[in-house]
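tool=predict chain=A
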Amino acid sequence: MPGIAARTLTALAGLLAAVAPVALAGCAGQGGDDLSKVTYPRTVVPPAGQQPGADSGRLSAEGLRLIDPCGLLDPAVLAEFGVPDDNVGQDFDGCRNYMSDAGGASLNLSVRVGDPLTSSDVDKASEPIGEFLARTTTVEGACFVTLVMDGVDPPVGVTVQSGYQTADPCPAARAVAADAARRLPTTAPVRQPVSASLLPLDPCTLPGALPGTAVPRAASPDAFGLHQCSWRNPDGAELELEFGYRDDPARQPAPPAPEPVDLGGGVTGHQVRTEQTFPQCKLSWLHLAGGAGEGEVVDIEVRDIRDTGLDVCGAAVTFAKGLLPKLPT
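tool=predict ok
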């Protein structure tokens, strides 16, 4: 489907970026800001004796949303391969450490909790790492080890990426993945978000019937990872909702400059309409301010893939106004 295809290309671009450590240095936020400012109170849940599976609350979608990805990059494990730098959070689900090996060469490691997986990805995961099945893939200078979380429907992964031009990048990625596999079911740090946070919310269930109001005949929700959901209708229109931690949309660099939209209740959205291969509109607003112009953000995007004449920005605003009362305050 066109929406899924577009997201797949975006995800692939993110994976290939690990091969180019210099390019990655500016990816912490939409404007290149350092997301080390992302902070949540952390706690370690005592071991509960649970094993990976659908009955493990930690490994459900609800549990994985709260896992602190930076807690899966243990400095002691990284130190086996060189000199770690500080862990830096990336959006809700990611963390990276741009470290160096013993000789000073760049060795970059990152982890993403809730990586979207296709059925083919799951089928090809045949390597046991701890109690999980995993898949290792490589491109030149990069290695990706994905642990399959099959207690989530659809399944997601916890993916460790390493970028290393000097030698084989996979030993470091496998070591971090093995440490994550050991701690995920019991002792990996979890975040305790404030009551107004978007972090624990399921974007597929929160809106209820609202997608069909904005985009007529919208079908059942299609989850993409832990914080993104989309709805499509038979005419080729698609509505997508995503929660994340990033730059305040009001600071989005031009072109095109975002247009302010009054959504009511004192909330100002920032709307960008484009017409490239098809009409699309992105509407975003800052839900909960963080630091340095960043915070928790709601993103809504509507695409009229078959160019049926749908008012894409009107649909986005309709959906946003219905969604706002459902968000925590």
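Residues 2-16 form the longest helix (15 residues). The radius of gyration is 20 Å.
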